[in-house]
UniProtKB/TrEMBL annotation:
This is NAD(P)H-binding protein. InterPro entries: Epimerase_deHydtase, NAD(P)-bd_dom_sf, NAD(P)-dependent_oxidoreduct. Residues 5-216 form the NAD-dependent epimerase/dehydratase domain. It comes from the Bacteria.
Length: 306
């Protein structure tokens, strides 16, 4: 019989995709839900309530081979206190892992974040061997969860994805898509510093890879598409998907920096103009092969979004 996977966060951006993708990879899926919800025919559900204070966990985890924990409090809502990140991303994760341990679950796959390892920009190439230096409360809460997992007698894996894109994405990629849809030339032609992204399909493949790996892992892996694009190339790809030319003007980077600073958006400028290159060779060593190239994925995203 196919392995049974318990999935949290099944109604979220990443979880919705995993709910469809994991059965296609040969897994049975049981969604752990806050409240009853409609599920695809190939998945079942168990209502456990609030992930921070779950109920009926013994029944929900009966027969489960592995957990994929994608539920999280993300930085999408501004002003979230550090205590909230700690309660949801750290304490709830470790509590769920303890429940998994009691239930005899064989592996716990935690959807962490590249922010557990670094801030929004990094000089050089980021790998698991790079120093762990999160710069946000969100990143620190994810890293603390990983360390909590490492303290348990449980086979665990933390995947640290780069910025994930796909249908329904929000945040920075959604903002680039909004800009790409505009009919105006954009002053970002000089923004060529490499930024790693991760297609939803490639993330699902990474999850399937670590679920299927036969040996204990007990470690973190960074995850990103193989190819690396600058923001100018990202916008050009999206506009190709919309059937339009790039329309990019190469304004000198120092002038752009000054303009963003004057508008009080220095952090936004860093995310656009400075590099964050991720090398996922360690995960590829387990047999993971990303199937979507970043430019093609962004082109399709824009085309399908219309």
């Amino acid at each position: 019989m196919a392995p049974l996977i318990a999935l949290t966060g099944a109604t979220g951006f990443i979880g919705r995709h995993l709910l469809q993708a994991l059965p296609a990879q040969g897994f049975r899926v049981r969604a752990l839900l806050r409240r009853p919800a409609a599920l695809p025919a190939e998945a079942t559900g168990a209502v456990i309530g609030d992930i921070a204070r779950p109920q009926n966990m013994a029944a929900a985890l009966e027969g489960v081979d592995a957990i994929v924990h994608s539920a999280a409090l993300t930085p999408g809502l501004t002003g979230t206190p550090a205590d909230d990140y700690r309660a949801m991303n750290t304490e709830a994760t470790v509590a769920l892992a303890r429940a998994a341990q009691r239930a005899g679950v064989k592996r716990f796959v935690f959807l962490s974040s590249i922010r557990a390892q670094a801030g929004p920009t990094v000089a050089g190439v980021l790998t698991e061997a790079s120093p762990e230096a999160p710069e946000s409360e969100y990143g620190r809460s994810k890293l603390a969860a990983e360390r909590g997992l490492a303290a348990l007698d449980l086979d665990w894996v933390a995947l640290r994805p780069a910025l994930v894109y796909g249908p329904g994405c929000r945040g920075n990629v959604a903002e680039l898509l909004r800009l790409s849809r505009s009919s105006w030339p954009l002053p970002f032609g000089s923004l060529v510093a490499g930024r790693s992204l991760l297609a939803l399909e490639n993330l699902a493949g990474a999850v399937a890879t670590v679920l299927a790996h036969p040996a204990p892992l007990r470690r973190a892996f960074v995850v990103a598409d193989r190819d690396v694009l600058g923001v100018a190339a990202m916008i050009a790809a999206m506009r190709r998907g919309l059937g339009r030319p790039p329309g990019l003007v190469p304004i000198p980077v120092p002038l752009l920096r000054a303009g963003f600073a004057a508008a009080g958006r220095t952090e936004t400028f860093r995310r656009l103009a400075e590099p964050l290159v991720v090398d996922a060779a360690a995960l590829a060593g387990l047999g993971w092969t990303p199937t979507v190239a970043t430019a093609a994925g962004l082109e399709r995203l824009a085309r399908d979004a219309g």
